[in-house]
Amino acid sequence: MFAYKCTNQLLIIFVLQLIHMLKSLFTILFAINTFFVCSQTGPDKTYLPNIKTIRLYKYGDPLTYPIIRLNSSDLLELHFDDLDGGVKNYYYTVQLCNADWTVTQMNYFDYVKGFSQVKINNYKASSISLTRYTHYQVNIPDKNCQPTRSGNYLLKVFLDGDTNKLAFTKRILVVDDKLNLGFQVTQPFNQQFFQTHHRFQVQLETNNFDIRYPQQQVQLKILQNYRWDNALSITQPTFIRQGLIQYNTESNMVMPAGKEYRWLNLRSFRLLGDRITKQQNTNASFELFVKEDLPRLPRQYFYYRDLNGFYVNETIDNLNPFWNADYAKVHFTFKPKDGIAYPQGELIILGMLSNYGEDKEATMTFNAEKGVYEATLLLKQGYYDYQYAIRQQVNGKLTLQSTIPEQDAWETENFYTVLVYYRELGGRADQLLAIRQINSQFNRTLQ
Q: Are β-strands 51-58 and 76-82 bridged in parallel, bridged antiparallel, or unpaired?
């Protein structure tokens, strides 16, 4: 009897050790796969050409960024279309990343409570539209997949429960508000930047939070209109006082202001928008031609309300924008000064409509015979913002520079977000402890 009990205890111990080993193996494989995803192309990437119109935002508000508060009831909406039609088995999971979007070396179940993947069961076939597609949507986080730590999360959507069959990846921010944060946008003092840049001042109150070494433990990210390609990364404070950390050094706390985004009204393919010059339709598709764009003039600024690079899928035809709206091939042309191509870099269409230049279709081709750049995007009905930018290598880093085609003006209205990351001494991941958002024109200072 004693030998029987010992045998059962040994068997239980063996099973528990096996489960622990399998969990560790899963975490290692998951981290390796996600590391290659992040290192090859960056977190926001579409891998399947049949996936279009990916939107992830706060529940009910398509003009927001996917930010949720830790341990709250906040929800995000994920929407996307599969142009192959039919029904497929899409799943999603999340991966915790550091402030620079490198993968953390943590066990999956150390930062998520629930299952390792969730199936997307809400889908509907398109109707009325000429383009056939299946629309998928899901609310995140699911009750069976809840984040338990703050930080940067990579959302991965894939086919058939296989993470190697990636459809696309998107960023999610989970914040645990523990720091009081003051954020201000001002006009630079430096004459070189006075008319063209925005300057930032950030103040952290740390009375209720012990930060021993701010230079090593705290990192700021400042995003302009939720863009990560030109985000400022700040690690060195200007002043450190009792319970207060200030960042206001002008040399590294300024950013080109840009200008207001260009717009494109595609709410209807029947009643054309003001910037559509021509339409060529068939029984199977729509084809639209946008008015030729020109470089903007320096020191000339006109304010009009824009979406700061976002877009909204909507129609004026009393149709559901998710599964009744149609698609069209939209042709863009840009004529540079004197019809001469830019000597360095590639011209791209910049904005959420092109995944901020990540989509290969966003790269424009120069037509030497016409002296214009040309590109074609497949877009769903809606209202779009976009700009032009030059993509080139600067000091070994790929950058997107919009100053030449768009110019900069201090008066430009932008939406800025400051993110405060903190890492414990000996910690294995960066925590997101504060977020502050501000409009550069309408509320330049928030206390």
A: antiparallel
Q: Report the relative pairing of strands 166-175 and 67-69 from DSSP bridges.
A: parallel
Closest CA to 389 of 262, 302, 269: 262
| pLDDT tens-place string over residues 132-143 | 999 999 999 999
Tens digit of each residue's pLDDT (9 = 90 or more) over 299-335 = 788 899 999 999 999 999 888 999 999 999 999 999 9
3-state secondary structure of 392: strand
Domain range list for the chain: 7-175, 180-257+411-446, 262-406
CATH topology classification for 7-175: Immunoglobulin-like (2.60.40)
Let me know: does 352 contact 344? Beta carbons within 8 Å.
no
CA distance 101 to 42: 8
Instruction: Identify the bridge partners of residue 246 per DSSP, sorted by sequence position.
Output: 203, 239
Question: 365 pairs with which residues across the strands?
Answer: 374
Beta bridge partners of 65: none
Q: Are 63 and 225 in contact (CB under 8 A)?
A: no
Fold of the domain built from segment(s) 180-257+411-446 = Immunoglobulin-like (2.60.40)
CA distances from 204 to 210, 213, 327 (A): 12, 14, 46
